Amino acid sequence: MNQDYIQPDNWSIIEEGFDKERVKSSESLFSIGNGAMGQRANFEEQYTGPTFQGSYIAGVYYPDKTRVGWWKNGYPEYFAKVLNAPNWIGINVEINGEQLDLNTCVSVSNFRRELNMQEGWLSRSFTATLQNNLEIEVKVLRFLSLDLDEVGAINYQVTPLNGEATIKFQPYLDSGITNEDTNWDDQFWDTLNVSTENEQAFIEAKTMKTGFHTCTFMQSSVFVNNTKQEQRPETDKQENAISFTYTVSVNAGETASIQKFGGYTVDRNHDKNQLVSAAKRALHTASNLGFNALLNKQKEAWSKIWEMSDITIDGDVKAQQGIRFNIFQLNQTYLGKDSTLNIGPKGFTGEKYGGSTYWDTEAYCIPFYMATKDQKVARSLLQYRYNHLEKAIENAEKLGFKNGAALYPMVTMNGEECHNEWEITFEEIHRNGAIAFAIFNYYRYTGDYSYIPEMGLEVLIGIARFWQQRATFSTDKNKYVILGVTGPNEYENNINNNFYTNYLAKWCIDYALEQIEKVKEGHHEDYLRIAGKTKITHEELHTWKKVADNMFFPYSEKHQVYLQQDGFLDKELITVADLPKADRPINQKWSWDRILRSPYIKQADTLQGFYFFEDQFSTEELKRHFDFYEPFTVHESSLSPCVHSIQAAKLDQMEQAYTFYLRTSRLDLDDYNKEVEEGLHITSMAGTWMSIVEGFGGMRVKNDTLHFEPRIPKEWEAYSFKVNFRDQILKVNVSQSETTFELEGNTDLNIQVNDNLVTVSPNNLVKI
Amino acid sequence: MNQDYIQPDNWSIIEEGFDKERVKSSESLFSIGNGAMGQRANFEEQYTGPTFQGSYIAGVYYPDKTRVGWWKNGYPEYFAKVLNAPNWIGINVEINGEQLDLNTCVSVSNFRRELNMQEGWLSRSFTATLQNNLEIEVKVLRFLSLDLDEVGAINYQVTPLNGEATIKFQPYLDSGITNEDTNWDDQFWDTLNVSTENEQAFIEAKTMKTGFHTCTFMQSSVFVNNTKQEQRPETDKQENAISFTYTVSVNAGETASIQKFGGYTVDRNHDKNQLVSAAKRALHTASNLGFNALLNKQKEAWSKIWEMSDITIDGDVKAQQGIRFNIFQLNQTYLGKDSTLNIGPKGFTGEKYGGSTYWDTEAYCIPFYMATKDQKVARSLLQYRYNHLEKAIENAEKLGFKNGAALYPMVTMNGEECHNEWEITFEEIHRNGAIAFAIFNYYRYTGDYSYIPEMGLEVLIGIARFWQQRATFSTDKNKYVILGVTGPNEYENNINNNFYTNYLAKWCIDYALEQIEKVKEGHHEDYLRIAGKTKITHEELHTWKKVADNMFFPYSEKHQVYLQQDGFLDKELITVADLPKADRPINQKWSWDRILRSPYIKQADTLQGFYFFEDQFSTEELKRHFDFYEPFTVHESSLSPCVHSIQAAKLDQMEQAYTFYLRTSRLDLDDYNKEVEEGLHITSMAGTWMSIVEGFGGMRVKNDTLHFEPRIPKEWEAYSFKVNFRDQILKVNVSQSETTFELEGNTDLNIQVNDNLVTVSPNNLVKI
User: Fold this and answer.
1) Would you say residue A737 lies in a domain?
2) Which of A49, A298, A759, B377 sits most deeply, having the most CB atoms within 10 A of its CB?
């Protein structure tokens, strides 16, 4: 844990006191988003101290020219970057001739930020003493509307406390922004037109290369003591910016305020020539409702989200705050309305990882969305990969594969590979397996088989073909081997026979073969269409089977464990506990070669396999592998602790499970990895949800039935969660003494709790 | 073989006919140098076609800010670059108002270039038709003086053939030059002062960051039909350039010419405030001698070099031309006068590899310099590494090693690591072994033990310490292993137990232990000094020995060969002969992962070990390993064919040996690797020399005695070479029927030829 300034609170993230050192961290932690757009918690008024400015529009990206030291064949030319979008939140505030700036004013007191997760808004208030000794009180409230997802709203209030003030509010739009992570200092935006109409302003701009057209817009009104001031503002129009200036004078104790609506319209949703008129419509709707009505709708919308997805924890405020922060951020990032969108590792909170799609979505996020949303959302995420199948086939061709083999990219925005580190781009091929696993997992959970004949089977065939071609026969071992890979544990590169990868490869082929048979029998027309399109033959399927049936898995007879890879036992097996503290995190302290030859595991790797394929191993086997690998795991990936938490819970090692839970749920709030300034770890937040539901709750789906093995950490009085299982909503409440189940709707649900079959009837509490 | 335009000739490199496509290749092939400076064969007059401009000064470099895609701990901040130095060769030629430019003139005929290797000069002649139909004949001769190594000379003659001509010769200096390989478009030179005195001009400039001060200078005279024209030129002084303009008018058939002396004085050799006066002295000496006398001295100087280092081949002009080109280029690059200099892989012929020092020097170049120069030259190259020992210890510390362990850099200009690809920078640690081996090899060849107590032992201790710490104990194998390395075969990365590396590591430790004992006994004062400085203890030496005695070597019982690395036999062992031609070179056709998991070997790796430690293996073992690995070797490194040529000769596989010889000796002339535009492969040229002397000649040193096992390819009538063995010069002449030995000097020399001891007496031909 590296920071401890967030106030514990059940529903809000609260910061008290102003510290310039914390500004960038708080900009990440207090980020807001509505699925269509999002932004870091940058101040509206001028701030000349260190800050990381970021506003992001879902699906709008830029292919930045790749930068590498030494080019390797096959590297992509471009790395997609999430774009820092034109700023619409800016409001410069001049008071008696002085720019309000928390970096330069005489003093700041009573500084308080609150991210109210229950209601979906961000507030900030403070008292500042200006150079001329004027004290002012400022209160700002901001939200991005879930209802009108092109619109955000700000209410900015200034009250002079000890004298009169002439206040100039200068709301502005600015498209002269840049990305911090630009590789070659290129401009990413081309401003096309800056225009105004009455008190509305518009900047039309398009992204370079990708040509996404956007209109950034705003409309403002000023008030004195809640009375709207009819005032024609001065307009200042620049090449890449536009501002209005309103001047109001108030006495001590009186409040001058400005309400600003703003946001983006994008040609992903509108004709590119209609963006200004779409913006006008959005502003019209918002201003007709007014700030307060829009805020009320926001509260209602969030209330509905929480109704389904909340997890309560009694008796442990930090744990409660942690899980809600995770659930809140996931919902801010992705709401599943658009199958061309996906979930970037940082969501709308930073530039890192380019806002692109990783295997995180399939391995971590889909279970969360399946259980807390309509199943269409998960289907939408699956369809995203189906839409990219052709690109995945092209990607595999670039690397020498043939005949429709598909290798999904490690990092992508539009289906093309973006990443350029050979050991990851070309070798971290396990990602392909997670995409197949998600199809299996979706059907297991939802029972919706239709996806497989409609789309999934083609994906499974492309992936199986890849694995069959990627495995090679070792005459020495008389088995198929997979050489030169990087597993989920990226602290090993170019290794042979990574257990997780080999196991997943075999599973993918077996599962594809099984589904081909099943579709052939049950959906014959689909089968004929797919067989015609993919040109699968008996001979080909036979070669698949030969690979799957003869796959090699490294195993230690001595330790009775599968080895993470060939040669793992040649390492110096010193546990993490015996590593000097000064050496950690090793990714900051050690050179890369030292990390590679060490036994230290960045994130669950063999254990990730045991997590995915739990049913195929006994609990004794799990225990043996957990006890073998956990001591070498440094969890320097955000995706690691949740898997270990789930497995520790299953093994009834509750102390460990709880420690891992805290680490995953408060990773960003407590800044475990010293990097929260860069943004939040959005995708791993779904892992936190899994730690509770699958870990402590012990929820599984087996044979179309929900299973539970509830446990509770000794630190908690009780916890509860809800899941949507095949359109039936089940609420589970676990306390130290009992577990209760409640069902919504009209139909009974049979579930299994520990070893007992239990029938839950609607509106009838079952206690166990 | 990818090009075939160089005319076969015993002593010269000749190009006939002008082809714009070949300009950059020829600029490399016709490069000239004198050990202190060198330059590509850029035209003196303006050339607006594609060209790669390069003039280089030995030891003057720039630490260019590193560019990487993904930063790893331990990467160096800077990559040293050889600097394109200010241009002194430029002479713009305006004829009747038109700039002479072979890219734009109406036609070019009779174009001919000759690099006369016997005499050390470059000439160029052509007939050009200008826009106004004037035909002119141009003859240019240029050389960089071996005697006055700060000075180069140009004689540039223009003869109008069909009309009169007013010719403006504009000799110039230009410091506004850039490197093609700059990472961030930085300027590398800061021009300090531009000045003239009479017909001399000077540009003082210093390199950014490194602050090398240089003075680039010139002095010119013009002639009509060999009569000097007393003419005050016009001077044009710019910020980064200076030119003189001379105007002469000549009739058809008359010759106008300009002689230009130019070059560099550098603060590596002079006080930085005295560079202009040093330049004046150099110009004074050169112009007092005059162009022709300086050229005669050049011929004499090269004659002396050839006297010692020539290799003759009868009956195979291309083979003869190849070996002389290699010997010529090596001597142009490095003459061994300065122990702060070393041999860059491209010498003075291009920017690639930054002009820095690699293990090439120790593994390939030292044998050539030992046998063809005074032994001080090789000692100087050894001392270069001794001077960098402190930096090598710092480098090891950065990677987590302790207690004086030394890891020499992969690439360096000043002892600091420059390279930034983790799989090479941090893992290609075998380079450390080559540095120790060179110490052994130097003593074996020269018998000069003094280097070891004076300097070498400290280097050996640092290196042994590194290997002891780098090896780790595998309880699984009950042996010491070396994990995570890249061997000489860079088509494998992050492998375990590379045979070559492990063998070298063990050898280094054993050899260091042996030398410590030997110095302790024979040079006790040195021993005490070194023991005090390095703080070696009995306990430490014991830990070294434990590692050396228990080193693991991967071995296949089935094939009876050492394996290149753990798991080599798991690969799909398809030989190069069975690879489709379209797939080669694989480094241009395949993605990196595909190369890595293939069995293909970029350059001799296990066989490199058999080359270094030949005495430790039987010929049967060599044959087994050669037959096992050769079929998988693609020789995509210039350093590979020579080793295979030597071993094929030893195994009496002369067809193979000859093929490899041609490949190594004509690598650049025939542009096997399609990259000669970038510069020449200087360091591998020493390998070509070894192919003849050690390969065909079978020369070895055993027990202080030269051994020979002469063989001759069937394509040759005879070949001869000379070696300087411990200040005795032996000439060896091998024909299809006999081998003769001739000795210079006064003392007999006992040599071993095949299995017979032979005494060679001075000036008395011995026939065998």
Assistant:
1) no
2) A298
Q: Among A307, A327, A345, which residue terminates a domain?
A: A307
User: Which residues lie below 8 Å from residue A230, measured CB to CB, with a gap of 6+?
Assistant: none
pLDDT, averaged across chain A: 96
On whether both B467 and B559 belong to a single domain, the answer is yes
CA-based nearest distance A552→chain B, Å = 11
Query: B585 contacts in A (CB within 8 Å)?
Result: none
| Residues A414 and A268 reside in one and the same domain | no
Inter-chain touch B493–A493, beta carbons under 8 Å: yes
Query: In the numeric block, which tokens belong to residue B24?
Result: 């950059």
Tell me, what CATH number does B421's domain have? 1.50.10.10
Q: How confident is the model at residue A674 (pLDDT cuts 50, 70, 90)?
A: confident
Catalytic, B490? Answer yes
Residues B183 and B54 in one domain: yes
- Restricting to B residues 714-753, those with a Cβ less than 8 Å away from any Cβ of A are none
For A228-238, write each residue's pLDDT tens digit. 999 899 999 99
Residue B408, burial from CB neighbour count under 10 angstroms (0-12, 13-18, 19+): buried
**If you average pLDDT over residues A515-519, what whole number do you get?**
98
Which positions in chain B touch A68 (Cβ < 8 Å)? 67-69
Query: Taking the alpha carbons of B653, B656, B658, B663 in that order, is the dihedral positive or negative?
Result: negative
Candidates A310, A264, A282, A261; CA nearest to A118 is A310
Cross-chain Cβ contact B496/A72 below 8 Å: no
Buried b (16+ CB within 10 A) or exposed e, A616-648: eeeeeebbbbbebbbbbbbbbbbbbbbbbbbbb
My answer on whether A301 and A405 are in the same domain is: no
Count of structural domains, chain B: 3
Cα B459 to Cα A96, B410, B429, B431, B437: the distances in Å are: 72, 16, 15, 13, 11
Q: What is the pLDDT of residues B368-386, one digit of tens each?
A: 999 999 999 999 999 999 9
Tell me whether residues A570 and B67 touch, CB distance under 8 A.
no
> What is the distance between the alpha carbons of residues A210 and A192, in angstroms, rounded to a whole number?
15
> Rounded to a whole number, what is the distance in Å from the CA of A22 to chain B's nearest CA?
25
Quick check: B476 and A68 CB within 8 A?
A: no
- Which residue, B618, B652, B684, sits at the end of a domain? B618
* From B490, B675, B678, B742, active-site residue: B490
Give the pLDDT confidence score for residue A744 in this predicted structure.
94
Task: List, by residue number, the catalytic residues of A.
Answer: 490
Same domain, B413 and B561: yes
Range of the domain at A549: 374-557+607-628
User: How many CB atoms neighbour CB B57 within 10 A?
Assistant: 27
B residues 449-478 closer than 8 Å to A (CB) = 472-477
Considering only residues 579 to 608 of chain B, which have any Cβ-Cβ distance to chain A shorter than 8 Å? Answer: 587-594, 596-597
Structure tokens at A575: 């546990």
Task: Give contacts of B422 with chain A, Cβ < 8 Å.
Answer: 591-593
* Helices A641-650, A682-690: inter-axial angle, 10-degree rounding: 0
pTM: 0.94
- B59-63 mean pLDDT: 91
Contacting B residues, span 261-300, partner chain A, CB-CB under 8 Å: none
Same domain flag for B260 and B135: yes
Within-domain flag for A624: yes
Helix or strand holding residue B171 (H, E):
strand B165-174
User: Could you tell me where the DSSP H helices lie in B47-183?
Assistant: none
Is A734 inside any structural domain?
Answer: no
The torsion of the CA quartet A182, A183, A185, A189, rounded to 10 degrees, works out to -50
Distance between A502 CA and the closest CA of chain B, angstroms: 15
ipTM of the complex model: 0.92
A156 in the same domain as A23 = yes
State which residue of chain B sits closest to A423, comparing Cα positions: B593
